[in-house]
């Protein structure tokens, strides 16, 4: 910060030239400001440097605001031009693109602009119809915001926790890219930049023994964001992140527990006492239903149906997007799952829409209690065990698919198995519940 600090009239002063990219917005040329600290009182400038840190931070925030405002105004003008062009029945395109189109279309655009009424509106019509408004610069730092805006309709049914899970991997991929490539317009990003990013990931994989799949997820997220923005804004960019996946990725699969381990260890009295009541009962409810953890924690008083001839739960979206269309299903309650539902008739408010928090808590506790016998075992393994238990008694494929919420690969006829029919199969695999839940 010493480069911005100078002595003047016995006081320390902050002096900094306005950056070139802000020169049109901040006409001062050089910013000068007194720290109000006398040189005689601070001969080495230690206090003055701390003050210039503060002044510089405020100044840079001011410049960022100017640039953000300029970008927002440019985006507003561009969006207005696109809407205006559509109102005349034409698509919006840059001037260079329009110039390459058939003469008849160009003439039609000019005539439409000349016919704009009132006449005072002709200038905006010309801008809209002849591509006079350039696309606002989209920089890497604003890439995700632009992508999220374009995806608004696609993610409208996600819950808050699902939105967080949707956002975070993309933001993380972009942050990793920005650690390798300086912030720039996405139109200036090159294949060489993308290859540098791939090489950076390869070095990390070798040095830190990281999973190749993690790198490929980053590359995939960046590729999708670029393709989406490129298509939406007709930028004509080359697919800089295309065909960059690192070979050698292993597709890991979660393990299932042995049914005997589930019965004798996990359902043993006191085995899960280190968990809070809700977390423990989530496990118990999964045992005889095969529900996903995220499905259990989002059950409510309306979807836990105990006053029915066949007590059951209704797996429904309820403010969130379900994993598949087949995930909406009704599952009878038997054994320890019925006991858990009776103990939590209003659901699991502590973990509602917090499936990741629940899984992290349970996995940590089960690992400490030696209830995860292998590296691939997790809370989710209970769901895989449920499917294995049904398979072991030769349950029909259609019955397994409907209980698991999987797609059944045959045409759908009739209403499908009743709750009573489903319960018959579940009672055949029911384990002995612990004496208390």
Automatic annotation (TrEMBL):
One of its GO terms (molecular function) is DNA binding. Residues 138-230 form the Core-binding (CB) domain. Residues 257-427 form the Tyr recombinase domain. The keyword Heme does not apply. Keywords: DNA integration, DNA recombination, DNA-binding. GO terms for biological process: DNA integration; DNA recombination. InterPro entries: CB (IPR044068), DNA_brk_join_enz (IPR011010), Integrase-like_cat_sf (IPR013762), Integrase_catalytic (IPR002104). The keyword DNA-binding applies. This is Integrase. It comes from Chelatococcus reniformis.
């Amino acid at each position: 910060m010493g480069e911005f600090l100078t002595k003047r009239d016995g006081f320390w002063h902050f002096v900094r030239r306005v950056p070139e990219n802000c020169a049109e917005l901040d006409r001062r040329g050089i910013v000068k400001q007194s720290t109000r600290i006398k040189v005689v009182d601070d001969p080495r400038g230690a206090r003055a440097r701390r003050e210039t840190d503060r002044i510089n931070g405020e100044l840079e925030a001011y410049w960022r605001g100017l640039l953000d405002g300029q970008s927002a105004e440019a985006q507003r003008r561009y969006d207005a031009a696109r809407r205006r062009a559509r109102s005349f029945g034409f698509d919006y395109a840059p001037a260079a693109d329009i110039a390459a189109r058939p003469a008849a279309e160009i003439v039609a655009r000019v005539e439409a602009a000349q016919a704009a009424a009132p006449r005072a509106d002709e200038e905006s019509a010309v801008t809209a119809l002849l591509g006079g408004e350039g696309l606002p610069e989209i920089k890497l730092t604003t890439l995700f915001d632009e992508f999220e805006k374009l995806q608004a309709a696609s993610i409208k049914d996600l819950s808050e926790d699902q939105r967080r899970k949707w956002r975070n991997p993309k933001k993380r991929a972009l942050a990793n890219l920005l650690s390798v490539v300086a912030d720039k317009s996405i139109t200036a990003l090159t294949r060489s930049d993308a290859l540098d990013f791939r090489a950076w990931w390869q070095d990390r994989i070798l040095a830190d023994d990281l999973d190749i799949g993690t790198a490929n997820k980053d590359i995939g997220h960046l590729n999708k964001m670029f393709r989406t923005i490129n298509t939406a804004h007709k930028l004509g960019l080359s697919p800089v992140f295309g065909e960059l996946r690192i070979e050698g990725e292993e597709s890991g699969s979660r393990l299932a527990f042995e049914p005997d381990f589930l019965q004798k260890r996990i359902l043993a009295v006191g085995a899960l006492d280190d968990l809070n009541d809700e977390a423990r009962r989530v496990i118990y409810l999964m045992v005889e239903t095969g529900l996903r953890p995220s499905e259990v924690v989002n059950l409510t008083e309306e979807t836990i149906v105990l006053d029915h001839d066949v007590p059951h739960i209704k797996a429904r979206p309820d403010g969130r997007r379900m994993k598949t269309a087949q995930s909406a299903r009704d599952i009878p309650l038997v054994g320890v799952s019925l006991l858990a539902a009776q103990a939590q008739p209003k659901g699991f408010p502590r973990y509602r829409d917090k499936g990741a928090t629940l899984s992290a808590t349970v996995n940590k506790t089960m690992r400490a209690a030696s209830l995860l016998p292998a590296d691939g075992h997790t809370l989710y393994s209970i769901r895989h065990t449920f499917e294995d238990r049904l398979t072991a008694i030769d349950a029909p494929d259609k019955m397994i698919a409907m209980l698991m919420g999987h797609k059944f690969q045959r045409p759908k006829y009739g209403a499908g198995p009743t709750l009573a029919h489903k319960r018959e199969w579940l009672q055949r695999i029911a384990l002995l519940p612990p004496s208390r839940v």
